[in-house]
User: Which sequence fits this backbone?
């Protein structure tokens, strides 16, 4: 049975629903160690004072804010403890909003919320009510001594909680000077062709279709080396940058390639998306108008096993 990483309750109005929180993501990172190549001795890292080889005991280490290089404002452990958010066990709901009003850039880490013992009826009531309303609950809670902003969603049966970034943590695109001062207006035919290319590549979102190719290749390499097989390094060169092709020619070639891949379908004269206003079907939470969600999923791994964190 999955182990809960946090327990508390969802609180709004006079309703209180005891819940347990479970990780919704299985990290598939491959844990690699550092060793000395000559004899495979494990490399360990020590906490040492800068400019010396003196190792510093953990109880002598405090936090500090660096004002300028080398100039710090020290913060004692008592001062940090006094500022720490109160460790409550409540997920305080502040508002209910429409999902399509939340830019996905604000979403961070997903979790599952399950009912605590004896809270099954209240949990089911909240899950069904939220799904029927099509609303998302915006709330605050404390996890691992850190205050978090979060969104709770429901599919009618299961509640999911996704931590969110605060507004001042998201950098506006305008501050990066990546938006051109003058709007570049594409030719009408170019836009129609671009919309047609998008339409020809549109499909339902299937999470299992997308795989971490680097992780799979690394696991395969580890497995071959563990079996004593000789590894021959590839001498393939990275592709060189080429001159930007004619935009119209590139669009036509792309559409033709997609048509050939999908059974020889001929390019359409006009994009459906601009003419009819129809969009490719997407999967969204019940009753909520979702843009796109980064739903977690499990993937089949090669024979070698990666350690989860």
Assistant:
């Amino acid at each position: 049975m999955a182990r809960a990483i946090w327990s508390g309750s969802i609180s709004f109005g006079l309703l209180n629903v005891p819940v347990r929180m479970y990780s919704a993501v299985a990290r598939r990172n491959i844990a690699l160690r550092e060793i000395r190549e000559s004899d495979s001795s494990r490399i360990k890292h020590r906490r040492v004072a800068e400019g010396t080889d003196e190792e510093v005991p953990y109880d002598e280490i405090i936090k500090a804010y660096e004002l300028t290089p080398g100039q710090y404002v020290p913060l004692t452990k008592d001062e940090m403890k006094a500022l720490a958010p109160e460790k409550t066990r409540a997920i305080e709901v502040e508002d209910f909003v429409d999902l399509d009003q939340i830019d996905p850039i604000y979403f961070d880490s997903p979790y599952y919320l399950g009912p605590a013992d004896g809270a099954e009826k209240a949990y089911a009531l909240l899950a069904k009510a939220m799904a029927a309303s099509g609303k998302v609950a915006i709330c605050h809670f404390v996890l691992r001594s850190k205050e978090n902003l979060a969104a709770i969603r429901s599919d009618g049966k299961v509640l999911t909680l996704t931590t969110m970034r605060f507004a001042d943590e998201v950098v506006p695109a305008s501050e990066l000077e990546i938006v051109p001062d003058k709007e570049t207006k594409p030719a009408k035919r170019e836009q129609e062709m671009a919309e047609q290319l998008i339409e020809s590549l549109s499909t339902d979102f299937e999470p299992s279709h997308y795989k971490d190719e680097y992780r799979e290749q690394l696991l395969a390499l580890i497995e071959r080396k563990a079996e004593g097989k000789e590894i021959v390094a590839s001498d393939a060169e990275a592709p060189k940058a080429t001159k930007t092709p004619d935009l119209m020619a590139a669009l036509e070639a792309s559409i033709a390639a997609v048509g050939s891949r999908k059974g020889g379908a001929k390019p359409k004269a006009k994009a459906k998306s601009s003419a009819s206003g129809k969009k490719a079907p997407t999967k969204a939470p019940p009753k909520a108008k979702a843009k796109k969600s980064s739903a977690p999923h499990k993937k089949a791994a090669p024979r070698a096993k990666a350690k989860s964190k």
Summary: Residues 247-261 form the longest helix (15 residues). The first strand starts at residue 6 and ends at 12.
